[in-house]
């Protein structure tokens, strides 16, 4: 699981309890382990601020299923890349049984 996500640009935190994908220098998407489930969260930071506190944040989905969390995160990445950055990005095919 973590090797597959690393290959497509995800930063994998120790013990696979958090994952981070950098959309731009200041815009990130995270998948966090929360209790028995997973949380997908986006954050935008002020350029050059350096305090680590986001100026905008949103919980995208709170689910018990890691595969659903990854799917949701990839849908958001595709939307962001295709609509905001105007760069085509198609989510990679990931099979449920690999999770």
Your description of this structure?
The structure is a single chain. With 99 residues, this protein is an alpha+beta fold. It has one domain (2-98): Roll (Transcriptional Co-activator pc4, Chain A). It contains 2 helices and 5 strands; from the N terminus they run H-E-E-E-E-E-H. The chain has helices at residues 2-7, 66-84, and strands at 11-12, 18-22, 27-34, 37-44, 56-63. The chain has a 5-stranded antiparallel β-sheet. Strand 3 and strand 4 (37-44) form a beta hairpin. The longest helix has 19 residues, at 66-84. It is globular. The termini are close together.
Q: Quickly count the domains.
A: 1
| Strands ordered across the widest β-sheet | 1-2-3-4-5
SSE-based structural type:
alpha+beta
Do you know the CATH topology?
Transcriptional Co-activator pc4, Chain A
Radius of gyration: 13 Å
Calculate the mean pLDDT score and round it. Answer: 86
Report the end-to-end length measured between terminal Cα atoms.
6 Å
User: In terms of per-residue confidence, which ranges show pLDDT below 50 for 5 or more consecutive residues?
Assistant: none
In percent, how helical is the residue content? 25-40%
Number of strands: 5
Biggest sheet statistics: 5 strands, antiparallel
CATH hierarchy: architecture: Roll
* Residue fraction in strands: 25-35%
Please work out how many helical segments DSSP would assign: 2
Order of helices and strands: HEEEEEH
Q: Sum up the overall morphology in one term.
A: globular
* CATH class categorisation: Mainly Beta
């Amino acid at each position: 699981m973590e090797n597959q996500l690393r290959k497509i640009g995800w930063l994998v935190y120790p013990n696979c309890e958090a994952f981070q994908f950098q959309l731009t220098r200041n815009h990130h998407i995270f998948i966090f382990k929360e209790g028995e489930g997973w949380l997908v969260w986006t954050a935008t930071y002020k350029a050059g601020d350096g305090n680590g506190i986001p100026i905008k944040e949103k919980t995208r989905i709170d689910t018990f299923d890691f595969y659903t969390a990854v799917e949701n995160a990839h849908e958001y990445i595709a939307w962001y890349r295709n609509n905001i950055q105007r760069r085509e990005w198609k989510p990679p095919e990931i099979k449920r049984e690999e999770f």
